[in-house]
Each structure stands twice: as structure tokens, then as C-alpha cells.
From TrEMBL:
Family (UniProt): Belongs to the ABC transporter superfamily.
The protein, known as: Probable branched-chain amino acid transport ATP-binding protein LivG
Organism lineage: Archaea, Methanobacteriati, Methanobacteriota, Stenosarchaea group, Halobacteria
Function comment: Probable component of a branched-chain amino-acid transport system.
GO BP, sorted A to Z: amino acid transport
Single annotated GO MF: ATP hydrolysis activity
Length: 257
């Protein structure tokens, strides 16, 4: 039975690759308006869990509920329409386009349909209005992450950290409710990292929910309300950072090192 208040509820998820059970009966909830961390050693099944939740893979067993709705069978763009979005790496094709164009194109890419397609003349005015709104929104998001001064720069010229911010901008354009971020701080310098974390907290206060895979334990422990620990395809523990840091099973399997 799912709970209504959870933003995300995964139940007994299972995914095999040949003989490997990458995700082995995983159940957890992500509460609304939280930053929830998903941690665990390499190969624990974190990325596979993300791929199951976002519809990239179909699970061999188990279910995914988003805001109470069973979304297990949905494709990624159908989940984006409902507000469940993950960050994507900037693909190579998009280098050679400006930062602003990258943000705008994320709309098409994530939804699997094009707003920028040619249209019949009668529909043109409505499309222009929609384009205008989207462009305004793209600028607002770029301003929020202090990338607006780079809007007309080729995306290929951005630093690693700025690319991470751009990924987040691209996800935000689709107006998500739940964002899944796979290592958002990797390669981000300390100054940008501080800004990025501040923005995440602001967005959470505005009603966004985040599920984050991150290797940096300090970031996880200092910024997440809840931490989920995976180990060998299973959930080893779930709780507030203070409890997780003192959990002996977690220390033995992961933190002890
Ligand atoms: P994590 O993100 O926690 O490091 P992954 O979900 O990437 O873990 O991997 C979990 C396990 O599943 C690993 O043993 C990995 O080798 C395996 N695995 C992941 N993706 C695939 C795939 N596409 N094909 C085969 N094995 C995979
Ligand atoms: Mg991974």
C-alpha cells in the first residue's frame, strides 16, 4: 500500500543484467519538499535505481509510484510531463550551440516532442506566445544560476562546474516537481558548489523535491533531510543523517572504509 503524502514510493524494485541482480528488492519513499540523498559504494545499484524510477529501464519486478500514481510502465517523456525529471549530461551535439539554446532544447529533448517544429500558419500565433514564455523562463532560470551573462556563449566553452549548473537549468525548464540528480557536484569548484547548494535549498523551499546521488559524504550529511543507503542492490538503511552516520551496518559496509 502506498502512502499519499510521499512524493515518490518505490516498492520491491528488481532489475537483473544477465546473472547480476543490480537492484534486488528495493523499497523506499521520498517525502515531499525534501532533499533526499541516495548513497552507497560503487556498484550498489544507485544509477540502475535512477534508471528504473525515470523509465529508462523497465523493472523485472516491483512498482514505482509518483504522487500516488503507479507510473511503473511509463516512458521517460511521460514522466517528464508529470513532473518527474532527471538531469542529463550535455550531449556532444549540443556543443556548438549557445547556453540559451541548450536550455531551450532541453524542453524538446526531455519531452520527446518538438515545440520548435514548423507549424501550420493558423497555429503560428499561439506557438509564438508559447515560445516567448519559454524564452522568458529560460532567462529567469539562467539568472537564478548566474549563467545569464553566458547565455550567448557556446556551451562547449563552459567549465565543468558551469555545465553542471546548465544541466540543472535544462531540467528546471520542464517545470518538474521531483528532480533526480546523479552526482550534481562532481567537478564543481567549492565556490560554485556553495551556490548550487544554496539554490537547491531555495528551490526546496519553493516546493521542489530532490533525490540526489552524491559521493561527497559532507554534502550528503549537511544538506539532506533523509539518507538512503544502498549496498549490493539492496537498501541497507534509511533515516536522518545523524542516525545513518551511527548505523553500524552502514559503517561496516560503507562509511567504515
Ligand atoms: P552504482 O550506480 O551504485 O555504482 P550501478 O547501478 O551502476 O551502481 O550498477 C549496479 C550493478 O549492475 C553493477 O554490478 C553494474 O556492473 C551492473 N550494471 C549496471 N548497468 C548495467 C548494464 N547496463 N549491463 C550490465 N550490468 C550493469
Ligand atoms: Mg552510478
Amino acid at each position: 500500500e502506498r502512502t499519499e503524502q510521499a512524493m515518490l514510493h518505490v516498492s520491491n524494485l528488481e532489475k537483473r543484467f544477465g546473472g547480476i541482480v543490480a537492484v534486488d528488492g528495493v523499497s523506499f519513499e521520498v517525502e515531499r519538499e525534501t532533499i533526499t540523498g541516495l548513497i552507497g559504494p560503487n556498484g550498489a545499484g544507485k544509477s540502475t535505481a535512477f534508471n528504473l524510477i525515470t523509465g529508462v529501464y523497465a523493472p523485472d519486478a516491483g512498482s514505482v509510484y509518483f504522487r500516488g500514481e503507479n507510473v511503473t510502465e511509463l516512458r521517460p517523456h511521460q514522466l517528464v510531463d508529470r513532473g518527474l525529471v532527471r538531469t542529463f549530461q550535455i550531449s556532444r551535439e549540443l556543443a556548438g550551440m549557445t547556453v540559451l539554446e541548450n536550455v531551450l532544447l532541453a524542453f524538446d529533448e526531455q519531452r520527446g516532442e518538438s515545440l520548435w517544429r514548423p507549424v501550420v500558419p493558423g497555429a503560428r500565433r499561439a506557438v509564438v506566445r508559447q515560445e516567448r514564455e519559454l524564452i522568458d523562463r529560460a532567462w529567469e532560470i539562467l539568472e537564478l544560476f548566474e549563467l545569464d551573462h553566458l547565455a550567448h556563449e557556446d556551451a562547449a566553452n563552459l567549465s565543468g562546474g558551469q555545465r553542471k549548473l546548465l544541466e540543472l537549468c535544462r531540467a528546471l525548464l520542464t517545470e518538474p516537481t521531483l528532480l533526480l540528480l546523479d552526482e550534481p557536484m562532481a567537478g564543481v569548484n567549492p565556490t560554485l558548489e556553495k551556490k548550487l547548494l544554496a539554490r537547491l535549498h531555495e528551490l526546496r523551499e519553493q516546493g521542489y523535491t530532490f533525490l540526489i546521488v552524491e559521493h561527497d559524504m559532507d554534502i550528503i550529511m549537511n544538506n539532506c533531510e533523509t539518507v538512503i543507503v544502498m549496498h549490493q542492490g539492496q537498501v541497507l538503511a534509511r533515516g536522518p543523517p545523524e542516525a545513518i552516520q551511527e548505523d553500524e551496518r552502514v559503517i561496516d559496509a560503507y562509511l567504515g572504509g
